[in-house]
Amino acid sequence: xxxxxxxxxxxxxxxxxxxxxxxxxxxxxxxxxxxxxxxxxxxxxxxxxxxxxxxxxxxxxxxxxxxxxxxxxxxxxxxxxxxxxxxxxxxxxxxxxxxxxxxxxxxxxxxxxxxxxxxxxxxxxxxxxxxxxxxxxxxxxxxxxxxxxxxxxxxxxxxxxxxxxxxxxxxxxxxxxxxxxxxxxxxxxxxxxxxxxxxxxxxxxxxxxxxxxxxxxxxxxxxxxxxxxxxxxxxxxxxxxxxxxxxxxxxxxxxxxxxxxxxxxxxxxxxxxxxxxxxxxxxxxxxxxxxxxxxx
Amino acid sequence: xxxxxxxxxxxxxxxxxxxxxxxxxxxxxxxxxxxxxxxxxxxxxxxxxxxxxxxxxxxxxxxxxxxxxxxxxxxxxxxxxxxxxxxxxxxxxxxxxxxxxxxxxxxxxxxxxxxxxxxxxxxxxxxxxxxxxxxxxxxxxxxxxxxxxxxxxxxxxxxxxxxxxxxxxxxxxxxxxxxxxxxxxxxxxxxxxxxxxxxxxxxxxxxxxxxxxxxxxxxxxxxxxxxxxxxxxxxxxxxxxxxxxxxxxxxxxxxxxxxxxxxxxxxxxxxxxxxxxxxxxxxxxxxx
Lengths: 296, 288
Hints:
Chain A has 296 residues and is α/β, with parallel strands linked by helices. In chain A, 49% of the residues lie in helices and 11% in strands.
């Protein structure tokens, strides 16, 4: 008796499982290369799209290595949204390897490109760090989705308009927060190389520590250089990612009088429930950390 | 010359603190290392250093990189492993070295697991490698206090300790101080390792203990002189290592131990007592 009932339940479950993909197939499958782009796509596409990110939350797209499963994701997608500007160097090969016939969209099309700080003449890909640029991303994504799924054109336009309004509000909010910081204190020392567009748009200067290697354990020379630079340039706050030892940060702060900034998010969102689960929350979090560190 | 040797310490407070920390560490750990070496327990220090990890990790689990939690945890774990080792060696067929090996490996695995549960690999590295550049007031006081305690207790148990190094059977026949002295000594080993792991981390803390002791062995037959040479070479390693780290950008902890290693190699070659070069040179025969 029991076994037969188990069999029935089992087959019912199987039937339900096989029905699931059928439901999902009605949606437009969009693949974004990393979590911030995926967030843009979700906001524009709403219910009509099924969005996946190749490089998920909390993962760094710079050091990402594609896995076989990722080629499958690319092959399945109807639309692939990339950042471009050399951010996803691995993308071309992945698309070729997967044999995908997806529409490949570069979301930064039309953005005023900044040269990277490295001085190699490369373009800086972290364009999303200014909310004004995010508007361009959203417009590009809207157009791409409309082209791939003309039936949803009205929905995409409406969603995008609503989201663009929120981005404008965000832009104003960040500018307001910066305006509240005294002009001579708008400087931080930071190992992040991702805030070039942020600096350009909002006027917070991100100064790189000079001649400091970024490997895990800093030497006495590294610490001495950072301290000297902070003192000489009178930098009010430090955001250092490579020095992960809180005891060492404490020492630097005590010796220079500079304030230690919290964590800034640059290339990836956090999981749901984290400090920066969406683009807008990420930007809010960052400007809050910067204001906290720079307000006297 | 001033730029090279003194300026780093005059200009930067963190360098002064690092220097003070390593000096205190060398003063306490040198003598302990000498006794470990004379009792053929050189590797015990290493094993104990790993045994401390789970205790420090439990401290880390409850209160992050907190000085007192990690110190207390390390002390408890070190003493526990020493005790368990003694029990197993005494009550079963297993010899002391094998018992210690099993317990310290267990400890190490347990410690790495505990740190990983809460923190990241990066946190683990802080615990394993310490940071001599980030000594705050409390840590400095702890290290200096431990060094003082070590020297005082060593002075008190100096006699039985030396006799036990040379002739344990004789000590047992004339005095019952052997066992307490041995236990006190083991406690000192743990205390010094705990000091060391704040500055150099659990992996390198033993370095500032054993390398100077081995150096001392090559320059003196007399144990007092051996201790003096050991402490002095520890001090020199600390000073030169910090300078090396300051001028060349080598990480500080490893730099200190590498300098001690260089001194050791020099001693192996040119040491007055049993150095290779000295052995190779033909010596005059004693004539009556």
